[in-house]
Amino acid sequence: MGRRLWIQLCNQDWFSVGFSEMYSIQKLHYTTRKPLNINDQTSELLPDEIPVGIKFTSCLNDLAATLAQMYDAVTAASTPYTKYEQVLAYDTKIRAVCNDNIPKWLDSREPFEPHWPKW
User: Fold this and answer.
1) pLDDT > 90: what percent of the chain?
2) How far apart are CA 109 and CA 116, in angstroms?
3) Distance of alpha carbon 77 from alpha carbon 70, whole angstroms
4) What is the 3-class SS of 47-100, one letter each residue?
5) What are the phi and psi torsion angles at 26 (to 5°)?
6) What pLDDT score was predicted for residue 38?
7) Nearest in space to 10 (alpha carbons), one of 48, 55, 63
8) What is the pTM for the complete model shown?
9) What residues contact residue 3 under an 8 Å CB cut-off, 6+ apart?
């Protein structure tokens, strides 16, 4: 199975945890690496600063994996207070994923560069 398809299946499964209160794909049960940042036409490896669609999916994967971890931590907590502590702890982690690990070209706080695609 291709990495791009696999990462999308993981994203769908982990993002559904908020609605279904479960997920099927366990991160410990696979060793597939994230897809590379490549040009689809030439298969040339590109630096992270060059916008390609798979990088967006990869960023979503980081967020989805964090949400699945949060679900595990909250369900393992035994009292409402400890559940809330987990929510607060993961709030910090989710904010870090969304703010610190995002490429410049996906960050709405960054000015638009003329060579970036106008998606």
Assistant:
1) 50
2) 15
3) 11
4) CCCCCCHHHHHHHHHHHHHHHHHHHHHHHHCCCHHHHHHHHHHHHHHHHHHHHC
5) -90, 130
6) 87
7) 63
8) 0.85
9) 32, 33, 34, 35, 36
Mean pLDDT throughout 13-17? 95
Q: What is the pLDDT of residues 60-105, one digit of tens each?
A: 999 999 999 999 999 999 999 999 999 999 999 999 998 887 888 8
Tokens 């410049």 — which residue?
A: 104
User: SS3 for 45?
Assistant: strand
CA–CA separation, 107 and 98 (whole Å):
9
In eight-state DSSP terms, residue 46 is: -
Residue type, 117: P
* HSE toward the beta carbon, residue 119, CA cutoff 13 A: 7
Residue 58: exposed, middle, or buried by beta-carbon count in 10 A (0-12, 13-18, 19+)? Answer: buried
